[in-house]
Amino acid sequence: MGTSWTSQKPVPDVDLTQKTVIVTGANTGIGYETAKTIAQLGAKVIVACRSEAKANEAMERMKMEHSEEKADDKKSKVEIKANDLDVEFMTLDLSSIASTMSFVEEFKAKRLPLHILVCNAGMAYGGEVKTADGFELHFQVNYLSHFLLTLHLLPVLKASRGNAKIILVSSMAYRGAGWHEDNMQSINKGQLSKYGSTKLYQIMEMFTLAEKLDGFGIGVFSLHPGFVDTDIVKRENQQVSGSMKFFVGMLSSMGLARNSFDGALTTIHAAVNPQYDGKTALYLENSQPTSLHNPLATDRDKQEFLWKYSLDCLKDYITEDTLKELTSH
Asked: What are the catalytic residues?
């Protein structure tokens, strides 16, 4: 088709046995393909999402597809390392601070290591809605709860002893995002503005985290997965305009949308490709580092403002001991 992502690198031939990975939003779309592929490489994968029923359905499908691909390697897009997939559901509702904190405590109680955290879950076109915690819905789901999750899981990532990774799945929608210090949650702004701002924040968070975690052996990455034909604008319970639905359908019918696996490739490379071991603060598109096209993303003063604003939003859930994990070896 002549589309640029056809030149993406294949899945690296790596063995992730003894590794533990969390993938948020792993029951559908690129999260599903990310979780399945990483599990096929041998890792234990935590499928972190809201619905246990949907997660169980997704995990059963992963296992069925895995069996088929093991039996016929022509069907497989990865050098399979796992005999059986080790995938486990854990409840995580990112629209709820309580759910996010419960997830953290329950994961820590398992006393598992954590080598890779993939912050993949996201939403768009959710209307003008505030969560029960009082935050704008897109801001909390796409950015703030992942921020909280990451800070509280830092001790476990640090304990993995090198080459741990945090992956923040952003979007090229960051390119058009603006900056409004008096309205960081984009309240009463357009749906695309809300979404784009949260994706910009993820990239800005990458830079701040990478700087604060320098010397800890934790790489922080962000990326654009590409337009995927099962993209979040098509999910249920989202207020997508007729024109946007038409646009999505047109791109898909013209073959200009990636399938979910191709969309997941950039995330997979960021998470498991050994060429990124020891590296950090890289933004990827088409499975390789690329330059950023919005100067807001690299503005250090604005990065610091966002960091302080985020901590203030979560002041009841982030203690001084939590923040010490950013400075203590």
From this structure: 195
